[in-house]
């Protein structure tokens, strides 16, 4: 997703006279800073910057081809996922790239530190004066108009022309700090006491109460999910947490006691932290989002070992810590088989080179047999959360072809939830696995919404699950929440339970889901054919029979999915 070295002599005077350095290639440029930032003036020349250099990766085309083969149900190599070392061999920069970058830095007296297992991302520490010379630019100080916070950025930077084809990006440079959308939406004020309703009228009969209050019992009935405990301890489910959202054990215990009394009341989750993250347990520190994500994984994927990843604010990846977590997992010998994330942003708010690098990281996780699920967003066609717009706003990172984007449904029987974000990426083109269903939808859609979206872009969401009136425990009380951040952990739990069955049979986990879902799995899903996702002054996209950019291919039917994978 989207440096041969012959000018060492000229580099020696680059710092002293960067403007005299001929043959520079502009790598990134923006016309103005975001409207929420104002320029204060040149950054102090002695201020220290930590910059990340993204090196051109070795053979991502080869990795993409290999992934297409091993993720296709029609291939004899289906689900023969790659090892950590095999993936890194594809990704590692070629020797001439390593030599060029090493010479460039050493000539200027700078050392680097690799920050990824494949050594395709490196970190350097320089002063503003050095950075200005190295990259033919002027770093300035900008102030955020609302918070007053200051940041050092530039609107344009260059690299020596001989490094073109060896270096993808330098960060942070033209990418300004952005706000990560926080999901979900509280649809009934919290705190609020709600009496649990966990009585069915028969095997997999959907309780009438599920139309207004969704519990794990409702999900078992709606999606034929098993209540019996998983058996395989090697099967793990990851839940990511950001922006100071903490998962609370006391709330989880209360949730299980009321809504999953068949599970041991001391059921818990493991914790891993990075970027200065933590997970304090003060009841007033419990997060709505983190609690939702943990309660609807631990409480739905019965018995599957669950890991909460607390990602702190000390991240420098320009992508809210998403890339740091991806690289954290890539460095592990045994990362979780499923990762669910309920956060996102609008695609236009992130740097394209950084986005492409993140998507490449997700391709690597996919090749290693990891299912990466993301909530599609809560703004309909108006983005990650409803925004004023004149054209449809695709969300991030649902546009990456190597994640599985999850939209939302509501009600019994299920219809598309209006908040369910969906549409078409402006960065990534349509992947091979969508080449049948998306053109079918576009043909049926006709001229509706013409000119408001990119018809050739990667389409999303891929699938859906319940996303409104979901009951959680929060700070000692119960309440209802809504958003696609409910949908992602629910669908992730279904995948984790299927993985448990596969591993028990000595088979590999489902891994990269999308080719399977579009080729075989689509007939195993509950097709949602009514509703729409309005926004930007329009009715948005209509749901219809087959795939649609509101609910994707549909919601899970566990029994049918289990039959499709032969367990």
UniProtKB/TrEMBL annotation:
Specify the domain of life of the species encoding this protein.
Eukaryota
Protein name, please?
A: Family S53 protease-like protein
The species is: Vararia minispora EC-137
